[in-house]
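Listing S7. Sequence submitted for prediction.
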Amino acid sequence: MSNMIWKIKTFEEFTVPELYAVLKARIDVFVIEQNCPYPDLDNYDQKAVHIWAEEEGQVLAYCRIFDKGIKYDETSIGRVLTTKLARGKSLGKQLIQYAVETIENRFHTSEIKISAQDYLLRFYSGFGFEDTGKKYLEDDIPHTEMIRK
């Protein structure tokens, strides 16, 4: 991972190759790997701040964050992924750390709401997210709403 770089950009700041690489990573993980034909392009990317690690143009880890009042009353983190290539290298931890710091710095709050896939509840609790007890199926995958105060 020697040539890896982290990027934080608004939608307007994307280059076309960056946008393509990010969308490809999201489709590879969420649509193909998780076998979920769902509308990944949901018209929220334009309102998000995008955070990702890349190496030689390939996305390794990615998420998008939102200010208060866009997805929820609170700020939020979504579309969290690590690509197959990059798993097991603790990039997910770094990604969430950057996401939380970016929210605190840009949106001036530490209150964050997420919709977590259930197998990641322990992972997120390590960052101070708490299970709200609100559980639901999203695209046939069990999710839990979590909040960080």
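Caption to Listing S7: primary sequence and predicted structure tokens for the chain studied. The chain has a mean pLDDT of 96. The two ends are 33 Å apart (CA to CA).
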